[in-house]
Amino acid sequence: MLPLRTAVIGTGHLGRIHARLAAEAPHIDLVAIVDVNQEARERVAEETGCRAVADYREVLGEIEAAIVATPTIYHHHVVKDLLGSGIHVLVEKPITTTVEEADELVELAKTNGLKLQVGHVERFNPGLDCVADDLADIRFIQGIRASGFTFRSTDIGVVMDLMIHDIDIVLSLVKSRVVHVDAFGVAVMGDSEDIAQAQLRFANGAIAQLTASRVNYQGARSMQVFTPTGFTDIDFAGRSATTVRPTAELLTRQFDLNSLTTDQVAHYRDHLFEELLVKKQHEPSQTNAIAEEHRDFAEAIRTGRDVRVTGQAGRNALAVAEQVLEAIDKHLWDASPLGRRGAQLTPAVPLRKAG
């Protein structure tokens, strides 16, 4: 496969990671690093051994693809320019700031026969990858994603920053239409929500309960998935998964709990997850998720197949995230509709003057 002539646009935290991995990838020929900040672009260009340019339009005739890691507010404008110039695009999440903008990009990519991939990198996490194909007829999902405050991505709240990862994963697993969203959020560090909790109800009856925080003293990235035939615990941080499968005797209701002898009770208590609820620890190969994302992008362009996370998938995750934000804005913290609402849990000003 010929290396894909590529530029990385944006040299923030994720942009630098993309640039470093792209420079090391055999399927990518990193042509240029693009950023309006001269010091930043030259530093990353020196680290990766490629050219530094201030404007992506300078390299449009030299590249086949671009990785866009600018702040979200610039995604629509930059990606639209690139797609309009015949360039395949991998854009970081969220795809855009609005669904309308996302719809425009998805249609433009389709019209021009180009790949548009969205950087929902957890889809390439080995912990999810090793069990995703076995998760069918999902009934309930519980996800938690928490971190400390990084002082990055302050232009968006925790729903677009963190929760949208789990929204995308849930949509890819449940494969049903969201029919109801209930949510609340709390702003801590600024005007945007830093803690959020959402419940998604799907047309097929499935429920997803998602919690996200970026002001947590302890990190967490996990998801528990319940189906009629088992339970799966995905550890995104540890990049592993655990499955628990009831035996056929339990699934067919032939196990008579009330007829067990004292000795049998003692035995099954000690061997529950070996003989009745059979537990299996999955230890997948520890691949780098962003590197796998790059490989998928390049292979899809060269072979013509779909990327794993399409522009449409990114658009759908954004649409549900917008519903979560709408539900947060409508949430009342007091009995009175004139009381506190939205992410502002505490009053903005003192209730009375001190002294």
UniProtKB/TrEMBL annotation:
Location of the GFO/IDH/MocA-like oxidoreductase domain: 152-226
Domain called Gfo/Idh/MocA-like oxidoreductase N-terminal: residue spans: 4-120
Name of this protein: Gfo/Idh/MocA family oxidoreductase
Gene3D superfamilies per the UniProt record, alphabetical: Dihydrodipicolinate Reductase, domain 2, NAD(P)-binding Rossmann-like Domain
Matches recorded under InterPro entries: Gfo/Idh/MocA-like_OxRdtase_N (IPR000683), Gfo/Idh/MocA_Oxidoreductases (IPR051450), GFO_IDH_MocA-like_dom (IPR055170), NAD(P)-bd_dom_sf (IPR036291)
Molecular function GO labels: nucleotide binding
Pfam families xrefs: GFO_IDH_MocA, GFO_IDH_MocA_C3
